[in-house]
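Catalogue entry: protein

Sequence with per-residue tokens
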Amino acid sequence: MLKKTLLAIAVLAALCLLALGGLTVVGKGWLGSDWASAPVSAGPRAPLRDGPARQPGDPQILFGDLHNHTSYSLDAYLFGMNAIKGGGVVTPADACDFARYCSALDFWSINDHAESLTPRVWEDTVNVIRECNAMAGDPANPDMVSFVGWEWSNSDRDDVPSHYGHKNVILRTWETGQTPLRPIASRAEYPLTELPAPLLGLLSATDGWRATANMGRYLNESRKVPVCDGEAPTTALPADCREVALTPQRLYRKLDEWGFDSLVIPHGLAWGTTNPLSGDFRDQLEQHDPRYQRLLEVFSGHGNSERFEDFQRIATDANGEAYCPPATANFTPCCQQAGTIVRARCERPDSGACEDAVRDTVAAFVSGDPRTGRKLIENTTPADWQGCGQLRNTFQPASMYVPRLAAQYTLALGFDEDDQPARVKLGLIGSSDGHQARPGSSYKETNRLLYTDHKDTGKRLLDLGGFQADPESRAFYYTGGLVAVHARGRDRDAIWQALQSREVYATSGDRILLWFDLLNGPQGESPMGSDIAMRDAPTFRVRALGAFEQQPGCPDYAVAALGKERVRSLCGGECYRAGDQRKAITRIEVVRILPQAHPGEDIAPLIEDPWRVFECPGNGTGCEAEFTDTEYAQRQRHALYYARAIQQAEPLIGGDPFGCEYDAQGNCIEYHYCIGDNASRDRQCRATGRTESVVIADLR
């Protein structure tokens, strides 16, 4: 009997070792093959419908997306696994084809995470961008311009002083000898590359051994890239190492050494999921360089980072003691809601024992991490927390909002952390930040899993909600925004000049046409993005025209270039296809910001949102308004103005991330977040929401 038992144990151990060995072989990628782009598709793209008639030499409005990822960003591949939502490997060639034929953009860029890129896939990326531009026709009048770039991702959200956020690097040139030999990362390794091979091999249960082995091969390839010599000039380094810049200033220095025209665009500043909840852009002013940082991505598939709301999650009194601050009209600290939940569970809510329990719970919450404080109370659901910790009553907000990293707060700053004069002057743009190689996926609100980074499919496998303190954050995904430019041509240099001069605006996804001009500047009319010195009261004109209504399906040129099957798999069977009718602009709002005039000046009163409101006919013919700031001359201080055009409400994916049921007074009485059982694969989670665009001008 003993021999049989020992033999069974030995056989079981051998089988376990064999299984472990097999998982290791798969996870190491020894049986895998390299990810690589297929050739981009050829075939003409019909000219797109333009805006109103222009005079010769007048700028035209073009739409683009300057933030896109493929599977070369390792997190992007993980999102596309069958264990999560499926989709498989997507490459820069897929992104090119989608931008050209599915979303019909005028320009776009590739921005995979530099921390996971290898020399081989960087070469593949650059070659695809060259090929994509070669297929776009006459360089002086191409149907689309493709820019090469990468994302520099500093993600140490727990160390506020060394957190500089995420930034996209965009290069003007892509020709041989005019592109960096390697991207510049923010750290030497990407965390996902450290996954143990056997653990990675387990993914073959859902994705098959071949796909898993291919991923393991890429992880192994990325892990083996040596780190470049940090002291050597960037132009003296070999092509096959990983170059690292730990701070933005070091990034700028390395870009200086290359000498190629480039932009560095911060994004996602107000996302609490990737940034310190107590973050403050004042701490980053010393790392700002206006030569590179001229634009700010304020809207993406992760939400809207525009608005400043003066709230705190946990406050500190004059003695340095932490306490739970009161709720505001649009934000409830979760320490407050924790007390409410505990009180509701008391048998006698008005008893001293209940009061002690509430006080102890709030004190424990305040003394810990606001991200995990919700774990103090057992057996709660996201609905129990009543939207606490999230910014409410604003258009498609970013999750776990960080108010002192929002665009309005950033633009209102006038002094750095040492009380030295410091300002940023940034044009506001939108983009998608999509991780599925689908630039400009906001053209139709029809496919939640394909057009957004939403990952919930209603499946229980790999449902991480039980491990998250704030599982409702998984509902805060949208189709993303676009960047619009007023360019004097369709070519690369015309688009680049518009980006450099900040003649740009952000849209929340739809292709709204917007003009915002200073009418009485010293040199006459001045366009959006202008930085003007003047004494007289400024007079502005703002005009807006709604986006075209979309027709179902895809145009013939897209089907001819991609084929019916790829139109289905890549485009989701739907493309940008403008009809004849335009959507209505319902109103125009003007925001005025008076940047700080002295250190310590309170920010909130300096942001007037809205300062002016103009109601519009709402009939699809557009809207125009002129206004003068009669207070400007007597104030004798800087002023910044931007316009926000509001388009008619319509069903949007994530139009209400809270999934609210409202009472007659407009109060949310039931929360149905698009997560878990509420997020089956065929559910689009649409809710009525507005679409908006913003432009900016700066006067001194």
Notes: The radius of gyration is 26 Å. The first helix runs from residue 2 to 28. The first strand starts at residue 60 and ends at 65.
